[in-house]
Design brief:
Layout: H1 6-10, H2 17-27, H3 40-50, E1 57-61, H4 67-76, E2 79-83, H5 87-96
Parallel strand pairs: 1-2
């Protein structure tokens, strides 16, 4: 499995101690996202709200590096697709699914 450092690829400013402190205090250290701030609990609530079942298709517009898309598709056994205007983000997302 290839390791991808998404912070270096897509959002270098998220490395700052100030950002990490704000993120952790606001959303908790379990938040999987580095670009959009959302907690695991909130992601799980979305899974319930969407009524996803295995085999459903998910389209994530503005997917960034694809962390949320990957989480939904793996947790719910769905097919995840993402689009974004950032070529760097898309290239990082492609490495995430390998």
């Amino acid at each position: 499995m290839q390791t991808v450092n998404l912070r270096d690829v897509f959002c270098k400013h998220f490395k700052s101690d100030i950002y990490q402190n704000i993120k952790n205090r606001t959303w908790g250290q379990k938040s999987i996202n580095i670009a959009s701030l959302i907690s695991i609990e909130q992601l799980n609530r979305f899974c319930d709200w969407f009524s996803l079942i295995p085999g459903h298709n998910i389209l994530d517009a503005c997917c960034g590096v694809g962390e949320t898309t990957k989480y939904f598709s793996e947790r719910m056994q769905c097919n995840g697709y993402g689009i974004d205007v950032s070529l760097d983000a898309i290239n990082a997302a492609k490495k995430l699914i390998v």
